[in-house]
Amino acid sequence: MEKDSRKSSSSRSSRSSRKSFRLDYRLEEDVTKSRRDKSGGFTNPWPTWKFPSYSTIFRFFFLDKNHSNVPSSKEVLDRELPILEPFFVQHPEQVGRIGSGIRVTWLGHATVLVEMDDLVVLTDPVFSQRASPLQFVGPRRYRDPACTVAQLPRVHAVLISHTHYDHLDAGSVASLNARFGADLRWFVPLGLLDWMQKRGCENVIELDWWEENCVPGHDEVTFVCTPAQHWCKRTPVDDNRVLWCSWSVLGPCNRFYFAGDTGYCSVFEEIGKRFGPFDLAAIPIGAYLPRDVMRSQHVDPEEAVRIHIDVQAKHSVAIHWGTFALAYEYYLEPPVKLKEALERYGLSEDNFFLLKHGESRLLNSEEVFE
């Protein structure tokens, strides 16, 4: 099992036989790598980034009205946001039987399971009840995960976008590592390797923006760490010590883009020019109000549609909503605003679709096995 922790010249040369999906591009200096400030923390290089002022943050936590209004009734939630048993729990023999297609299953929040090009890829896995360092305080999910780690099919790769607790969960990392061990390859942004290794993960690839690597035995599929506009923090003293990112997965039959968590900026058009069109993108639509607090770090549904257009996605699935109440919009508002934005841009709900928790959609294939 290959255990390189960063892309190296040897790993690059070992993939020299790759033909149609070699990344033969010339990077401009201003977008080649991530940037750091004088204190050593990573920074966002776009003028669209502006962290909220202390007064704005104070108002958000103590004065602004929270309109999320998540019902306490399980009966209501089951009706409005039903949780389906994923197809792979009912029929595990069907996993990967998609030919040249790509299948996505939404497990909740930013966790999706994608089958493409003989690989199973999992994004930002969070199976715990709280997005918190402690499981008795902090944001509690109001919709359970659609499955447990034990019910997952064989996973080849996990993509981590950044370190916030609703995207990087220590309990879920430990469970996945216990289940798959060194056979599971973790793709993480710069600065996260040490954290992963301390939790027993051996097969970790840490990348800077625009760097690439692959899963051993699947050299034809390229995983590229692509930029996003966000920030990282897990403790009082680790501000932006780890990079944040999106991910572009480029295979011989399909291309998948995972936006992670992001504000809107110009980089998505650049990603689309370099790696698009994507057959599928997973783009966040929730946790966007109030805008003066969230604008730089979380897109709203209209900006999500703009990302869909910028990266040249043929289809997109909505993520980052309907699971945790992390901001102040009504909990069922994101899909409504997404539909309105699609109409304004002349797109259909087939172009940018919603899934129920646990639901799947198969694309680019005439055969449906579900």
UniProtKB/TrEMBL annotation:
Zn(2+) 1 binds at H162, H164, H230, D261. GO terms for biological process: N-acylethanolamine metabolic process; N-acylphosphatidylethanolamine metabolic process; phospholipid catabolic process. Deoxycholate binds at K233, V237, A325. Residues 1-21 are annotated as: Disordered. It is a peripheral membrane protein. Its cofactor is Zn(2+). Residues 121-321 form the Metallo-beta-lactamase domain. Pfam families: Lactamase_B_2. GO terms for molecular function: N-acylphosphatidylethanolamine-specific phospholipase D activity; zinc ion binding. Belongs to the NAPE-PLD family. Homodimer. Bile acids promote the assembly of inactive monomers into an active dimer and enable catalysis. This is N-acyl-phosphatidylethanolamine-hydrolyzing phospholipase D.
